[in-house]
Amino acid sequence: MAKPLEILSLGAGVQSSAVLLMSIRGDLPKLDHVIFSDTQWEPAGVYRHLDYLRGIAEENGIPLHIVTAGDLRDHTMRGRLRGRSEDGHTNMEIPIYLRTPSGGGRLMKRQCTNNYKIKPIRKKIREILGLRKGQRSGSEVLVRQWLGISAEESRRCRLSKDRWVENRYPLIFDASPPMRRAHCFRWLADNGYPRPPRSACIGCPFRSNEEWRALTPAELADAIEVDEKIRHCDQNKDEGRRELAFLHTSLLPLREADLRTPEERGQLNWLDECEGQCGV
Fold first, then answer.
1. Which of 165, 190, 215 is the last residue of a domain?
2. 102, 236, 257, 272: which has the fewest C-beta neighbours closer than 10 Å?
3. How many domains does the chain have?
4. SS3 35
């Protein structure tokens, strides 16, 4: 039985960056390949960090592959809530917020992770293994796929749906003690590595207000443009029954959303306590 390939699914955020660099330093086993799936809508800081990681990986004999399923921004701009647009684009992939005619709200199902991250990486793994499209791989484990999930996220751990792939969570089961996200930041700083940016698409609806504010002015303007474009993506109902789409959880246009911190909005924090001994 051949030794399974050790392949990292790289998100280029703090956890997966730490896993790659720990492998390079010898704190974790040696990786055979690293794969990053590019949505083509990442912030500039992510691409700069990806270039940095690629250089270090390849200097140490670990190929870093970049794959893509296409331009997620373009798909979002031209997608529809239901059915297909005139140019053939299908349903929205990102989990947009919808405001109903009655004023309520709901969150669309997230499909972008599966279609723009998981599937392209799995396709590349099959290519590395030399498996043709449709070719069966058998039940023997051929790949250990590393995932940068840290200890506080252990509920996200899953068994692989494919018998030939074994999911591996090195921050939880290989590190001793198991590492949390904060431990990854500390390890990177202690070993002289730069702090990675948060890896998320520019228009990701799961951004917190702090993360929206962290975008550059050009990136925020980009997200605002997409937010305005998707507003009336519900085309299959009468005007009065259509739902309105938003990127921000407030169900307001991103241009108008209040991105200030609670303190900036005038809410009290512990520093406002006259004696700091309330205990509430």
1. 190
2. 102
3. 2
4. strand
